Amino acid sequence: MTSYDPYQPDQPQFPPPADPVYPPSAPQYAVQPYVTQPQPYAGYAPQPGYGAYPGYQPLTTSGMAVAGMVVGIVALVTFWIPFVDLVLGFLAIGLSWGGMMQADRPGYTGKGMGIAGLICGIIAVIPALIVMLFFFGLFAAAGTACGIAC
Q1: How many CB atoms lie within 10 A of CB 118?
Q2: Would you tell me which of 23, 56, 93, 109 could form a disulfide with 121, CB atoms 3.0–4.6 Å apart?
């Protein structure tokens, strides 16, 4: 048995490299010839298990839920327009409710958008009613003070 002393400079620290071109710290790879995979030609039948499964249909998002959410957001932004916002708010509530019912059926998604549209529609109707009452109250006060000639 030989003793190895790393502090002795006369002993080789590494075995000599197999290829003198590469330093001993470089990984040694065996050179293999380039091999290509055989390319399938048009005569091959498709293999089972690859691609889409037969009978699989991707899920579709409920269009009514998307429309309800968009109309609900528009109703939230335009709450200060007296008549338009009230119509948009109730339209958003109806579309979102229908979208939530459609999203519950198999093959459809979008229930979260239906819920968001429903909440936006309900929140938009409340200030719309307040603005509309203020609007009618302002015209009622102006009508009684001015009389018929105004």
Answers
A1: 22
A2: 93
